[in-house]
Amino acid sequence: QVQLVESGGGLVQAGGSLSLSCAASGRTVSSYSMAWFRQAPGKDREFVAGISRGTSSTSYADAVKGRFTISRDNAKNTLYLQMNSLQPEDTAVYYCAATLSILTIRTTIRTTSRYDYWGQGTQVTVSS
After folding, report:
1. C-alpha to C-alpha distances, 82 to 75, 93, 108, nearest whole angstrom
2. Which CA distances in Å does 35 have to 16, 77, 93?
3. CB atoms within 10 A of CB 103
4. Kind of pairing between the strands at 122-127 and 10-13
5. Edge-to-edge strand order for the sheet containing 18-24?
6. Angle at CA 127, nearest 5°, toward 124 and 128?
């Protein structure tokens, strides 16, 4: 079992940047398929970015492609999400998620139900 703890959220003006971290306990993060999801008030949780187990291939939602970057540091056992050019529509609670399953980078890595472990979430608020 792994525990995930997100940090780095906050309030930022439109056009600004934030970097989220997700510290994992237990196995190294390279052992997991991992992803960032977000949930805005009144909306379903949605995929933001994912990184595959082993190969470290990445996948992004169209809404964040070119602005967000997912990465992981195996030595620090941490998953990151660098968010640039933030917009008010990026406002949400951001969650990291992990599974030992091997997920396909184009499809199942984007599926909420495929993940077994979730962090508690960190709030990101972008003001206009």
Report:
1. 18, 15, 22
2. 22, 14, 14
3. 22
4. parallel
5. 4-7, 18-24, 78-83, 68-73
6. 145
- Across the range 15-30, mean pLDDT stands at 95
Encoded tokens for 13: 């003006």
Label residue 98 exposed, middle or buried (CB < 10 Å: 0-12, 13-18, 19+): buried
Tens digit of each residue's pLDDT (9 = 90 or more) over 42-73: 999 999 999 999 778 999 999 999 999 999 99
78 close to 24: Cβ distance less than 8 angstroms = yes
CB 70 within 8 A of CB 36: yes
Segments in 23-117 forming alpha helices (H): none
H/E segment holding residue 78: strand 78-83
Structural element, H or E, at residue 21: strand 18-24
Residue 46 CA to residue 9 CA, distance in Å, equals 17
91 token code pair:
């406002």
